[in-house]
Design goal:
By secondary structure, the protein is α/β, with parallel strands linked by helices. It is about 40% helix and about 10% strand. The chain is built from 22 helices and 18 strands. A seven-stranded mixed beta sheet has the order 10-12-11-13-14-16-18, with helices on both faces. Helix 9 links the parallel strand 8 and strand 9. Helix 5 runs antiparallel to helix 7.
């Protein structure tokens, strides 16, 4: 964990569950060490013996009488039995007669058996002196063989049962695997638990990593740990490798010019068939990368106007052979490249459209259609970039992903996700009411959630639903997911990008106004320097006057965004979180810098932990090396997109192998 690997969940075997509880925050280390010392002393004082049996527990149970206890079920062909010495000796004789393999454990105790009954009251006395808390990291308990509850973790009775009752380790591995399909990392000498786990998951081939050498192994401890971190990294745990030490240094480059050629890596979900067809684009111009194999059929430009617009797209993106229906964002575009492209189109005298048009209609054909139909409210007109439902990618056969706006109310920043999700994944942005002038801002939190669910149902009347939200959009998405579940719908993905917890906070109008100015500056691509909102609006107006394509919004649009921001911050404390039933994909900004706005919830630490009480499942916290407001920059978004794409592929795998309920 010091190396940066944070567990999504934990499981221990017998005494190992105390370590899991300590890491999960149930027991302080200072309390745990004397407690387990007393536990070992009491168990040793009771005496007895334990024997490991290589047979199914169901075959062994009929051989047990009142003098023997089933101490552990470790796998399909592995269990242990405990009792007093004479009873265990008789049991071993019976096993020998039946030809059942067994081995007496070297520890002269009978843990998890009736032999401990006389010492349990003394142990209970020690337990009652320890403070027990709900777990911050989910773990599976040996007592039930499934996920521990807050009530169990904080119950003295549960810990007495844990000492006395059967260790249901095999059931626990099944519960862990069914929910997470995790990489299994064993903490402790050798690979005993790894073998038990793989014995239980014989049909699954789990990825396993051991972190310590066997007592008789000759490899150094440092080598074994380094190898474990490398295996974790190769299994997709990016945080397993430590940062490169030392300061960065400049490397001299050769004096000759490089050949200008980009090497494109196809997005997940892109067509990979090698066969050529009539829709194959022509060879790219020198200096341009070839068009990637998208799921969109290639339709070449045919008119002079289409060819000129396409040429400017190709120059802006550095890609040749772009088709009329190729999505700008699938080709690597983002909101800043949209501003650049809008400027080039205007300077060339080809089209005079704002950058926002590219966000709402991100294809050559779409931009041309919008330019030919300036009245956005006319029937059949292209969607507005400030409309409540922004189709970032409407095409695709997968279940749509709905991305809820951050505090600014606009969903443009999610465009950077598209290249990472695969060309068959439709993505729609949910934007705040009040931006496009068709309706006022939401009067309260409940109205906002209801309106957004109506938008979602326009695209997808019934579940399963997929929701994602950054910052403000994270807690709104959580509220939407809870509301959908209350309506009997299924939510199969909830992703929260560094979402703060607004419940219990108070609205501060002065602090909110400073936040609005900062957020508005970020939307317009201006420096955040503490000036008031009106000054930011003046700066936007000056930029638009000098070059209408230099910023993505006009002064009037920026003023509407500012009004929406104020309203969003006003109603944020009204979001009283319900409990979402399912797992959550959470992304924490791991490099947040001190802020000049202490009232800004977005930059406070501990966001993931603040949501754990409101998730009835596993909250998978991914640490992203950036600050909160850099979450949707290209590099952090690539990491986020990779994790979201992996989760979406997992949903597709389950859908293809499991019948619908």
């Amino acid at each position: 964990m010091e190396s940066g690997v944070r567990p999504d969940a934990l499981i221990g075997h017998s005494l190992g569950e105390y370590t899991a509880a300590c890491l999960a925050g149930v027991i302080d280390l200072a309390d745990m060490l004397p407690l387990v010392t007393e536990r070992i002393r009491l168990i040793s004082s009771a005496g007895g013996a334990t024997v490991g049996v290589a047979a199914p527990a169901d075959e062994i149970r009929p051989l047990l009488d009142t003098d023997l206890s089933l101490a552990a079920v470790n796998g399909p062909q592995a269990c242990t039995v405990a009792g007093h010495l004479d009873a265990v000796a008789r049991f071993e004789a019976e096993l020998t007669r039946r030809g059942v393999p067994f081995r007496r454990l070297r520890i002269p105790v009978a843990a998890h058996s009736h032999v401990l009954d006389p010492v349990l009251p003394a142990y209970e006395t020690h337990l009652r002196q320890v403070t027990l808390r709900p777990p911050r990291i989910p773990y599976v308990t040996n007592v039930t063989g499934t996920w521990i509850t807050d009530a169990q973790a904080t119950s003295v009775r549960h810990w007495i049962d844990h000492t006395r009752d059967t260790v249901r380790f095999a059931d626990g591995i099944t519960a862990l695997w069914d929910r997470l399909r995790p990489v299994l990392v064993e903490i402790g000498p050798g690979d005993t638990l790894t073998k038990l786990a793989t014995g239980r998951l014989t049909d699954e081939a789990p990825v396993t990593v051991t972190t310590m050498r066997h007592a008789k192994a000759e490899a150094s401890d440092g080598f074994v740990l380094a190898e474990a971190l490398g295996r974790l990294w190769s299994a997709g745990v990016d945080s397993a490798l430590p940062p490169v030490p030392g300061a960065p240094r400049r490397v001299p480059l050769p004096p000759y010019a490089f050949e200008r050629r980009r090497h494109w890596i196809d997005a997940p979900g892109a067509r990979t068939d090698p066969a050529t067809s009539d829709d194959t684009p022509a060879a790219a111009e020198p200096g341009l990368a070839p068009r990637p194999r998208l799921t969109t059929e290639h339709v070449p430009p045919r008119t002079d106007r289409e060819r000129e617009v396409t040429r400017l797209w190709e120059e802006t993106l550095g890609i040749g052979g772009i088709g009329l229906h190729d999505n700008f964002f699938d080709l690597g575009g983002d909101s800043m490249r949209a501003v650049l492209l809008a400027g080039r189109l205007r300077q060339a005298g080809v089209l005079d459209v704002p950058a926002a048009t590219l966000l709402a209609a991100p294809t050559v054909a779409g931009v041309l259609a919008t330019a030919d139909e300036p009245d956005e409210k006319a029937p059949g007109a292209a969607p507005s970039a400030l409309g409540p439902l922004l189709p970032l990618r409407a095409e695709g056969t997968a279940t749509p992903l709905f991305c809820v706006h951050p505090g600014a109310g606009i969903a443009w920043r999610y465009t950077g996700l598209l290249p990472h999700l695969g060309g068959d994944q439709p993505v729609h942005g949910i934007q705040a009411a009040g931006l496009d002038g068709t309706r006022p801002p939401a009067p309260d939190a409940a109205a906002m959630v209801a309106h957004y669910l109506d938008l979602v149902r326009q695209v997808q009347p019934h579940g399963p639903y997929r929701l994602l939200g950054w910052s403000y959009g994270g807690f709104v998405a959580h509220a939407m997911a809870c509301a959908l579940q209350r309506d009997g719908e299924r939510v199969e993905l909830l992703a929260m990008l560094d979402a703060p917890q607004p419940h219990g906070t108070a609205h501060d109008p002065e602090a909110a106004e400073r936040q609005v100015a900062a957020l508005l500056s970020r939307v317009a691509g201006l420096a955040v320097d503490g000036v008031p909102v009106e000054t930011v609006l003046d700066r936007i107006d000056a930029r638009v006057t000098a070059d209408p394509s230099s910023v993505p919004v006009t002064r009037a649009e920026a003023a509407a965004i500012a009004a929406v921001m104020r309203n969003n911050l006003r109603i944020a404390p009204q979001f009283a979180p319900g409990v979402y039933r399912g797992d959550v994909l959470f992304f924490s900004a791991a490099e947040e810098q001190p802020s000049d706005f202490p009232a800004d919830l977005a930059v406070l630490p501990g966001k993931a932990d603040s949501w754990r009480p409101y998730v009835d499942g596993t909250l998978h916290d991914h640490h992203v090396p950036c600050g909160h407001y850099e979450m949707t920059e290209p590099e952090p978004l690539a990491r986020i997109g990779e994790a979201v794409a992996k989760a979406l592929r997992g949903l597709g795998d389950r859908a293809s192998t499991s019948p619908s309920p």
